[in-house]
Structures are given as C-alpha cells and as structure tokens.
Amino acid sequence: MEPSLMSGNWFEACYDDFCQRTDFQKTLVDFLHLNGSGSLGFSEAGALLSVGPGNGRLDVAIVRGGFPKLTHYYGVEISTVYSTALQETFAQDCPTLAVEVWNQAVEEFEGPAAMVDVVMFTHVAYYFYDTIGKIIAKSMDWIVPGGVIILTIDSEEPDLQSVIGHKYNIPNSTFRASNIRAILNENNYAWEEFQVPYAMNIKNLDRRFVDFVLNRESSAEDVEACLQFIYKEALPQLISAGKDFISCLQVVFKITKEDKM
What we know:
Elements: H1 8-21, H2 24-35, E1 47-51, H3 57-66, E2 72-76, H4 80-93, E3 98-102, E4 116-122, H5 132-142, E5 143-154, H6 160-168, H7 171-174, H8 177-186, E6 190-201, H9 207-214, H10 220-238, E7 245-256
C-alpha cells in the first residue's frame, strides 16, 4: 500500500523498520501454513487474489507453505512502485506461478466473477476503513461458491498504534477487529475468527517508527512530541516498567461464500 505522503523507498524503509520490531508476519505465516488445510480450508486453492500486497514478500512466504496447489496469483496494488516490486518478487521467488498485477485502487477494480478461490487482505483493511464493507461485498463476486476471504487485522485490545491513533485522531490506526465483526454481522456473512498473538519490540523507538504510525513524514517537533507521548503516557498503559516488548494480538477472519445450489 502507499499511504498519504508516503512513497517508494522512504516508506518501505519505515515499514521494514516496523516489521523488524514485530514478529506479526512470522506468526501469521506460521498460523496460515498450519491451518490452511484445516480450519481455514484454502489448501486446495488454485487461484488467489491479494488486495494491497505491497512488494509481495509477505505473500510469497504465505503462498510457499500454505497454497501447495496454487497455479495463479493476482494482486491489486495502488502503488506503482510496489506493483513493479510485486511482479519482480514473484518472478524471482515463485517462477512457476502465473502472475497478474493490477496497479489500481481496489475500490476501482472490477475483476471477473468467480475468478479465484481465495481473496486475501493481510493487514490492509486499515487503509479502507471507510469502505471496507463495500470492498468485502465486491470480493464475494470474485470468489467461487465455497471460496473464502481471509482478512487479517489487529485486535481491538489496546496496542501502541491504536493508543497513538486515538491521541492524534488517526482513523485507520483505531480501526480494529471489532469494526470488522460489526460489518460481517450486519451483512449476515458466514464467518469465523482466529486469534494470533505476536510481540513488538519497543526499545529505542525513533523517527521511522513515528512516521509509520502517524502515516506521514513528521517534523522534528512532531517526532519529539510523539516520542514523549509514547514513553510517558502510552507505554505505561501497556507494559510493566523495564520491558522491551509488548504483547499484541492479530485476528484472522475467514469469510465463506456459501454455495446456495
């Protein structure tokens, strides 16, 4: 994804720094690999559409161990920089897959009906917080009957990003699993949820972390003020003194397109 005021290598450096501070990707990949043939039910999938896959590195890790029968991978990515990187990543790491990437916003994407077995949103629903209900409805048209949407988002349990989001009024940082549950229930979808814990290293937070959570390039004054808030107010709400890690929780939603035949 390419949030406002962030693009190319600069944002990727901020995101990579954030990923190095957490094990959310590893815990998510391990969970999907372990449960793909069981409760999540996507191990037989031949075609996958990923929404907002960025440079594709996380999707490659998921696909390699979780989709043994996959033949076609599709990506919808708004960033031109990441669309190119996504194609290069899959060409290098999954050369036998047929890959197609659409460089456009998912709100504008009109995919063929019943084109895939699985649509995947891995920690990108925050960017569509005001339209995610419509996007889920559209996604139902892209999957075959019996196919699934796999959507991953942070829990509504307080975490550092959501505490900062409330302080700075950042809507996509306070959009959480409870919002997704409400949308799924309102629309009577068939769904299940699974909780996947992960940890975040909060030692020596710096400008890159602040820029990432504020979703913009910050002034020196903004960085100083945000770090003061984090260490004096936010972290004491979340941890005991002296810890370098905080516990976090991500939620994996499985939304099934019911076969009504």
